[in-house]
Fold:
Amino acid sequence: MANPKRAYSENVSGTFFVDDTCIDCDLCRQIAPAVFTEDDDHSIVYRQPETPIEAHRAAMALVACPTGSIGTRSKIDIKTAAAAYPELIEENVYFCGFASPNSYGAASYIILRPEGNVLIDSPRFARTLVGRLEELGGVSLMVFSHRDDVADHEKFHEHFECRRIVHRADSRGINAEELIDGQDLLALDKDLLVVPVPGHTRGHIVLLYRDKYLFTGDHLAWSDSRRGLIAFRDVAWYSWPEQTKSMKRLLDLRFQWVLPGHGRRGHQSEELMHQKLKECIEWMKNRT
Ligand code: SF4
Structure:
């Protein structure tokens, strides 16, 4: 619960505020850009919501915030905001909201499939979200992009009795039912392809769904400011040269969406994504 006594003085006065527990995960700025902005190394409220839609988006940000750093000085409709997750991205692909501090506020996603729903990385195990996932058919499979974004996976596994898949090199401390070995591409089903991409961590993978949606964990993200794809040199925990090499593997894939754990989502034509990926690789080569 955010504490108004610890609210940043840079927040504009009004209902919503951010307190000093913010970890700068960026989610609120993505969900409600009309209300939240970055200030140094944290978020603040730079403008109070002026319409019901803006108020709803700000409340959704409050629900998604991993650290409970967003508060309000008067009562707002949290119930409707919480029930808005999972939030449709496109077709049958959804953003879960409800981020966990244990994965540093990483975004997680669910694909609703007749063959069984797939949860990519772990959201917070929140009662409202779990109830919504039950209504949507539960979770059959959890796929982890890497070791940092597994958050409440044990609770999801126990509740939904879902299988969990992670690369062996990132599996320490995670009792996954299935481990991915080596660097070969692995088809989990006709529409789901795992591509190992060591770099951010040794066992990082990305998941391609229907040659359209690429779930990228912390390997690759979209940058609004650069209008292109980016990788994060400062958090390449395993190896930046390896991450650069891994990035080249993605040139053989077709996709229109980049759906990361951290960073912004990107949606472009296949051709433009391919072009942006080539530019990203060139940029990475020059950042040793
Ligand atoms: S969602 Fe919460 S932790 Fe993340 S940037 Fe916003 S206020 Fe900070």
